[in-house]
């Protein structure tokens, strides 16, 4: 079982109308957990989980500290994690994100 401690950390930066997308291949039904941190972005970052057709399954906006976390039950298949800024945002900054399968701990 993967845990947050085992999860690889993804680092990126975002500004304006940038769209960062990460592919996730889930071999069997499981819970995906995502923790996102970008203090310099405050409430301006949006993390979205998409299915293989690009349809939105879940979306969350960061809080005032620039953090967001989610757990989502998914079937097997290809999924995408998309990082954007909310409409009209002029924020720019770096972020760190981890994702893992299994329990949130």
Fold and architecture overview:
By secondary structure, this protein is mainly beta. It has a single domain, classed as Jelly Rolls (Sandwich). The protein is 0% helix and 58% strand. The chain has no helices and eight strands. It has strands at residues 9-15, 20-26, 30-37, 45-50, 56-61, 67-74, 77-85, 92-101. The strands form two sheets. The chain has a four-stranded antiparallel sheet with strand order 1-8-3-6, with no helix packed on it. The protein has a four-stranded antiparallel sheet with strand order 2-7-4-5, with no helix packed on it. The radius of gyration is 13 Å and the shape is globular. The termini are close together.
Task: Give a brief outline of the structure.
This protein has 105 residues and is mainly β. Helices cover 0% and strands 58% of the residues. The model has no long low-confidence stretch (mean pLDDT 92).
